[in-house]
Amino acid sequence: MDTFFISHGAPSMSIDETVPARHFLKSWREKVLPEKPKAILVVSAHWETSNPSVNVIDGPNSTIYDFYGFPKPMYQLKYPAPGAPALANRVVDLLKGAGLGPVKQDKARGLDHGAWVPLMFMYPDSDIPVCQLSVVARKDATYHYEMGRALGPLRDEGVLIMGSGSATHNLGAIGPDGGPIPSWASGFDTWLTEALLDGRYEDVKRYEEKAPYAKKAHPYPEHFHPLHVALGAAGDDAKAELIHHSWTNQSLSYSSYRFNKA
């Protein structure tokens, strides 16, 4: 199973049909991954913890509305995908085995919008078991890459590993749709695609010193580290592919990538 990084953008994509990435995600099963995963592990930017954490849900996942001030219909959407407790336990074992523990098991937390918004378009039947893994505060890109490497065996077990974040994420610098893409956003986004497609993964792990406008594109790293997990899970010899590219809010990139073995 290939691994993926999805730029999930604003939660309003859940109801806004004008967002290009929404149509990309709706075409997922036809154009990107016809093979149905046995389970899905989502690493979402919207769950940040001091140690790696997984949700261990026996039954349907609850839908978390971790956003404020949006239209009422967004708070009526639900994505009751079954939990994946066996996968969660496997994640715990793999991370501990790689020396990345302790790993917390959260038996109450459902799916945040970094998980359920893209999944509602990718797999609208909500019939595939889903487990979430957190990003770890105060840990760098290399740490998250190593998390991904530890989780690599899941690919051979039919598990879809999906990082969900954003290729650029500076909410203080967004603007109206249709305006010119600022140079800092396009510069970072172009650098990222070129670095990934060229296999310069060490540069991607050291993006804060290697990429142009890194701090402007990501004032905080939580929306970027899911990419490092997905990349690490694909292995050191993985090949990257840009599978979607679009913009909203002038500076919010939806660049999304597939990582597969050479």
From TrEMBL:
Q: Which domain of life is it from?
A: Eukaryota
Gene3D superfamilies per UniProt: LigB-like (3.40.830.10)
Q: List the cofactors.
A: Zn(2+)
**Pfam families referenced in this protein's UniProt entry, alphabetically:** LigB
What are the Extradiol ring-cleavage dioxygenase class III enzyme subunit B domain coordinates in residue numbering?
Answer: 3-259
**Which GO molecular-function terms appear in the entry?**
ferrous iron binding; oxidoreductase activity, acting on single donors with incorporation of molecular oxygen, incorporation of two atoms of oxygen; zinc ion binding
Keywords noted in UniProt: Dioxygenase, Metal-binding, Oxidoreductase, Zinc
Coiled coil feature spans: none
Family statement drawn from the similarity comment of this UniProt entry: Belongs to the DODA-type extradiol aromatic ring-opening dioxygenase family.
Under the heading PANTHER family, the entry gives: 4,5-DOPA DIOXYGENASE EXTRADIOL-LIKE PROTEIN
Know the name of this protein? 4,5-DOPA dioxygenase extradiol-like protein
Q: What organism is listed for this UniProt entry?
A: Acorus calamus
